[in-house]
Amino acid sequence: MVIVACLLLPVVAVLLYGMDRVEDWLTRAPQRPRHAQPRHLRLIQGGRQGSPARTRTGRRHSDAA
In this predicted structure, what is the pLDDT of residue 29? Predict the structure, then answer.
């Protein structure tokens, strides 16, 4: 019986440590996502004023694969 208790002691210690780490991980405040940085627009002077008007042909054109 003492041998079983000595063998279970490290298992219980690792389990307790792991559950403590999981609890800390679940209860911490969420961090700001890395991809949610503020975007800066790069505007082109003149916009669409300099481009020629497109003619409508009735067909849709797509560059998708």
Answer: 82
Nearest-angstrom CA–CA distance, 56 and 65: 22
pLDDT tens digits along 28-54: 887 776 665 666 666 777 666 655 555
Q: Which two tokens stand for residue 26?
A: 């679940």
Taking the model in full, what pTM does it have? Answer: 0.43
Rounded-to-integer distance, Cα 20 and Cα 28, Å: 12
Structure token pair of residue 46: 């003149």
What is the DSSP secondary structure assignment for residue 47, as one 8-state letter? T
Separation CA 54–CA 51 (nearest Å)? 9
